[in-house]
Amino acid sequence: MNQMFVCYWRDSGAYARCPLAEQSAFARWLADDALLTSDVGVWVEAFCIPVRRFETLFSSEIPAGAARLADKPMTGPIDEHGYWGGMRDRIPASDTHELSSLLEGAPSMADCTETRGRRLVLAAPENLCLIRSAQDWSSCRGDERNSYLSDVHPVLKKGMKFLNGEPG
Known about the structure:
By secondary structure, the protein is mainly α. It is built from 4 helices and no strands.
């Protein structure tokens, strides 16, 4: 069984005050060497991403996930969708920044398969692209639901399958 919590903070100060902070009980538990021999695998991904480098979509009138962080409501159709590069075009920073990868030719963790008994810490380089996809179309109705199920969902599944096979 896997359990996952996805949390978003508006600023690094709020994150520093959360239970993941260095002096918290959670942080002490996470640092305990007993975890290295446990039958439970634990990972933490913690990033502070400026809003200008964030992108999100949702398929209903109710904002979900990172969309709840927006300073103003996000509504209406998205023009930057349904073509290669649409996600990049939805990132505000892409208007003024090339967002080129610093990982070209860099060593990859993709070949590191044995992690039991190890604690791995990776530093994220600038312009790292994190992709999280989770859709809840249960509140979508009519044309919006039909459009999602016939046009968006098949492309999303195809893209996620590609990314799963191409981690670098």
